[in-house]
Fold Putative transcriptional regulator.
Amino acid sequence: MDAEAKNTEGTPEAWRDVTPDAARRLMTAAVHAFAERGYHATTTRDIAGRAGMSPAALYIHYKTKEELLYQISKVGHRFALDILEGARDGAGTPAERLAHAVRAFVRWHAEHHTTARVVQYELGALAEDHAAEITAMRRASDGAVRAIVEDGVKAGDFDVADVRGTAVAVLSLCIDVARWFNPHGRSTPDEVGELYAGLALRMVGAAG
Amino acid sequence: MDAEAKNTEGTPEAWRDVTPDAARRLMTAAVHAFAERGYHATTTRDIAGRAGMSPAALYIHYKTKEELLYQISKVGHRFALDILEGARDGAGTPAERLAHAVRAFVRWHAEHHTTARVVQYELGALAEDHAAEITAMRRASDGAVRAIVEDGVKAGDFDVADVRGTAVAVLSLCIDVARWFNPHGRSTPDEVGELYAGLALRMVGAAG
DNA sequence: AGTGAGGCTAAGCGCTTGCTCACCGGCATG
DNA sequence: CATGCCGGTGAGCAAGCGCTTAGCCTCACT
C-alpha cells in the first residue's frame, strides 16, 4: 500500500501508456528514487521495494538498472522537446511563441520536478549509445529555442546581440527550475511560469 | 606523473592553502573525480589513484570520503559567497553592483566549472549536519542577490514586480552555467560573464 | 647512532551491490 | 483434466565498496 500511495501521488501523465502495470510501477518508483538520492545511490532493491516487488522482478521488465534510467530519460526528453518544437512551429508573434514555450517548459519542470530532476541531472549515468541518443534530443531543444529567438530578431521584435548565447541562457534558466523548485515553497508552477515568461521576453529585448 | 599533470592543470587558486601537499593533491583529485562521475560513482580507490597514492592514504588526511566532499563544498561556497557579498557591499549604483556580481560569479562558475559542478550538484550526498551548514551559506547567497535587487528597486533604477522570484532567477541562471559550460566550446568565461551581466540587467528592468 | 613520530602501503574485513537462476502459482487453452 | 506460459519469488553469486589494521620507510632531533 505504500507503493500504491506513491504511485497515485506522483505519477505524471507521461507514464500513462507504459505497460504492463508492473513495468509502470517500477518506472515511477525509479523516478522517485533517482530524484531523491541520485542514480548511483539508488539500489535495485530500493526501486523494487517501492514498487512492492522483489528485486528480481525488475529484471523481467528491464534488462538493467541503466535501461530504466534510459527509458525515463527518453520519455522526459520527448515531452520537453514536444513542448519546445510545438511552440517554435505554433502560431503567433515570436514574442508570443517564446512566452508560450517558456511558460509551458517551466510549468512542466516545476510540476514534475521529480521527473525533471532525473531527466536533467542524471545524464552522466547513461550508457554511451543511450547518451548519444539523448544528446541529439537536447541539441534539438536548443535549436528550437534558438529558432524562435532568430525569428524575433528577423522580425525586428527582439533586440539580441548574441542569439546563440541568449538562447542557451533562456533554456538554461528554465532547466534550472527543476533544481530549486519546491512544491511546498512560495510559488506555484503557474506563477513561476508566468514570471519566467516575462523574464525571457526581457532577456531578448522584446518591447514591453 | 599523471597525477601531477592533473594537479597543475586544473587546480584553482581556491586550494592553494590546503596543506600538507598530499591533502591538496587528494582534494583536487576528488574534485575532478566527483565532477566527472558524481560523488556516489566515485570510489576512494579512484581518488587515491588520481593523487598517485594507495587507497589507505586518503584516511590519513580525511576521516571519510564524505568529509572530502564537505571540505570541497565549504571552500567553494565560501568563494561564491564572498563574490556576492562583496558585490552587495561594494561601491557603485545598484546596476553596477548587480552587473559586477553576475560577471564575477559567472566567470568563476565557467572558469572553475569542475569545482562548481561539485559544489552545486553534489549537495545531496552531504551528511545531515554538513548539509545544514552549507544550506545556510546558500541562503546567504540568495540574500545577497536579493539585497542588490531591492536596492535598485528602492532607488528607482530597477523595475521588478516580484523581487524575491527575480533574484532567485538571476542567481539560478548564473549557477546553471556550471552545468553546461564547456571550456572547448564557443565562448570564454569572460564572454559568458559579460553576456550574462547584460541579461541580468535586462531581467531587472534596468534602463539600458 | 638511536629513537619516535608521521606519511604511506599491502592486505584484507565485512558488507552491499547489480544481477541470475531454479522454482512456483494462477490461468487461458486443447 | 493436463499443459504451457506469463509474471513473480527466495536465495545467492561474484564483484566491488568504504574503511581498518599491522607494519615499513624516512627523517628531524637528540
Notes: Chain A touches chain B at residues 37-38, 40-41, 121, 124-125, 161-162, 164-166, 168-169, 172-173, 175-177, 179-180, 186-187, 191-192, 195-196, 198-199, 202-203, 205 (CB under 8 Å). The two ends of chain A are 52 Å apart (CA to CA). The CA atoms of residues 142 and 157 of chain A lie 20 Å apart. Chain A has a mean pLDDT of 92.
